Amino acid sequence: MPSRLSTYLLRETSGLYLLGVAAFCLLLSIDTLTVWASYLIEQDASVVTVLKLMLYQLPFFLHLSLPIAGVFAVLLATGRLAKDSELKAAYASGVAPLSLLWPLLMFGLVISVAAVLNNGYLEPRGEIAQNELEAAIWNARPSAETQIDASFRQPNGIYHAARIRADTFDRRRAELTGVLVYGGDGTVWSARYGVWDSVVKTWRLEEVEVLAPGRAPQNRANVTLPFDLEADAGESLREAEVLTLSELYGRIGSGRQAAQDVSNDVFDFHSRLADAFSGLIFVLVAGALGLNLRGRSAGFGWTIVLLVCFFALWTLSESFFEQGVLPPVVAAWFTSAVVGTVGAALALVRLR
């Protein structure tokens, strides 16, 4: 009987989950509908083009919809069972509440795995495709990635540029402005302009002033210095939002080797994972509450309360990172850790 009841509960939850994902995606897309409509009216974009934009932005909507819909589905499903006294009958016949929580947790784990694939791979690819399509609509090129005040540690010294701007036509090259290189032997190279070529792994500086220990300053037309970095110029300058988890992990590793500040990339990497596994956390809390509900109205009320509390903590944790209160990994997992601890405590207290 517990097995049949678990299957029945999962079937009820799955249907509501799909409905919840669709509903939350629709709610999140309301603000974007006016933009899509303007493409149709003002830019003479075709219906097919707008449908492509919708498809490319769908992973962005799923980023929040996949975990949130778990709360909606579990609380409304258990609320319906409680309203019809089905949970009461099951408990009276000897079914332990915790035995119904485990199938829900497996359901939550499936949600989280799907969310990892969406957040880590589909969403960045959709962001790239959307940017390229919107640039085509406006007859413009996507803006070149730029990094300000970038420093790198190399075996032969410290490399610094006031600005690095990716080449529009060749992503393996980048333009350098305000270059200063400190050599390991004490030599200093300064230049107004330069080019980073990640194919031959060099920085080629133009109009260079060279200051070597014990020598008078020298001016040279150009100087080529070795610059070996695992990531190429375009990849190292791209926004974290357009990198997959694998690409972002690789850039974090190469950035650490070059003594770069990779805290933003680390926060983004762990935030994607934490957001994905919030689906499992949501189901844990919703299951702990829902399997002890008295009716559907209570389930709907708890859905609102949980979402408000989660988003408050989510916003707070990002603020903690930006203000330097918490390190990136702790800040990224802060909300999931707090909500997960509360969910585990509720399950132990309410479902014994």
Can you walk me through this structure?
This protein has 2 domains: 2-139 and 266-350, no CATH class; 146-237, no CATH class. The radius of gyration is 27 Å and the shape is elongated. Helix 1 packs parallel to helix 5 (97-137) and helix 7 packs across helix 8 (263-290). It is 62% helix and 17% strand. A hairpin with a 6-residue loop joins strand 5 and strand 6 (218-226). The model has no long low-confidence stretch (mean pLDDT 87). Strands 1-2-3-4-5-6 form a 6-stranded antiparallel beta sheet. The protein has 10 helices and 6 strands, in the order H-H-H-H-H-E-E-E-E-E-E-H-H-H-H-H. It has 352 residues and is of the alpha+beta class. The longest helix is centred in the first third of the chain and has 41 residues, at 97-137.
